[in-house]
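Example (one chain per record):
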Amino acid sequence: MAELALEDGTLWYETRGDGQPLVFIHGGWMNGQAWKPQVDRFADEYQAITMDVRGHGQTGATEPNRYSIELFADDLEALLSELDLENPILCGLSLGSMVVQEYMDRHPDRAASAVLGGAVRSMPPMDLPPMMKPLMSPLPALSTSLSMTGPQTTFRSMLYSIQATTGERWLSVNPEVRETAMDAVDDISRSEFRKVFGALYRYEASDLSHVETPTLVVHGEQEAPLVKQQGAQLVSEVATGEHLELSESGHLVNQDRPEAFNAASAAFLENGSAA
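Predicted structure:
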């Protein structure tokens, strides 16, 4: 992996292959390895780039005591500038999808295309009045859980609460994928876990009706219904959007159904349609 020095930390990233840049941003409490099935598939045709977001993977902890999706998007911009990448294709998973949305809001026509897996626009995935969200914040309870049980147990509790409302194996239908995700969570410190959660909870997505970037949103059939609704809304806002649901898959749709996800992404990038 390579390093990019920031004013308040060091960002770790990895590149494979040559060609048009294809940049992958992972989900919360994961790392760049979450995109391995896609890097293996596309590195022969594209310059595949993965980054470990602040608080995650090799990047680990950085100086700010508060994170935001906007800060993560700043880091993405810094990486694109450092590598002198133009017209990148951006692929975001979960939290990474928020980062890509923030980038597209800032630069409506700078990315060549966007592929968003497990795309979510807010957490929780519902409209809350701005004045109410701080009052309903789960951060105090999260801090207590982290101090008493640690990141992995706290994350499992979060999964159980989501699955209780969906009645499905929400995160992943594949036990190996779930356990790999849990191992990545266990590598994150209590303080960094809380900072990442805060970034997710505080983010307020902008209207993307000015975005011209062709965008594919992919959800697993066992994704939370409210998240699927957000994906449909996103697709309806951008100038060119497509929403695809893959069977036998959950939130980590790119890992549950890697071949189907890759085929749909390749078709979309080549023809503008995942059909």
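Caption: The chain has one domain: 2-271.
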